[in-house]
Specification:
This protein is about 30% helix and about 30% strand. The protein is α+β, with helices and mostly antiparallel strands and about 250 residues long. Helix 6 crosses helix 7 and helix 7 packs across helix 8.
Amino acid sequence: MAVSRQQRRPVVVLYERIADAIREGVYPPGSTLPSEPRLAGELGVSRPALREALLLLQEDGLLSVRRGVGRTVNAHPPRRGYEHLQPLEQLLSGGGPPLRVRPLLRTTEEPTDFTTQHLLAPAGSELRFWESLLNGDGTTGVLSHEWAAPEETLEAAHPAFAAALREAAPAVSMLAALTGASRGIALTAHSAVSATLLGTRRGQQLDRAADTPAVLVTQVVRVGEVPVLAAKHVLATGAGALPVRQSN
């Protein structure tokens, strides 16, 4: 049964009113919202309710708070509905410029248990493997490992995929290369999130202690039922918020 707007919590109704105004251009990207007293008066709501709704909008990436300026509308608000497949450097950017991709390794390797399981790679095949650091605002908080399916699998799924990986610039993630070459071919992904510790090697790469808590995101990207990319992303404490969007 559908839930009517009247059955929603008041703060959610207020959140939607402001979000709709942002998407309709009443408050365009980059603009500064009116002060809290003025906005509360315009919307006919109390300041505590408005403050709670504004905090939720900020947490959800529609607004940013700038010292000495106030609340501004982000240039690239998050999409509604089902998850929109994006490279991690874009997801973690908070609506700003994508994080920088610093390549550590671009090579090929034989399948491991992980890639055999997720890419269905036969024994003896060669898989592209890219290791990268994602940087932003002077910090390094993400270590990314990406594997592509065997060349013949990529060619069968979409000929442009293999060419995109061969010709990609070093400072590009594998997923960014594939999404850029998809050209109407639908990509879907499944991700799993778990807690872990960095460990010695990853700690050295991220300049953190080995016992630093981290989030491990494993991701498999498919064309139809065919897996074309598998990845492990390690996000150390302070790496930024990872948006997760769900719908039904």
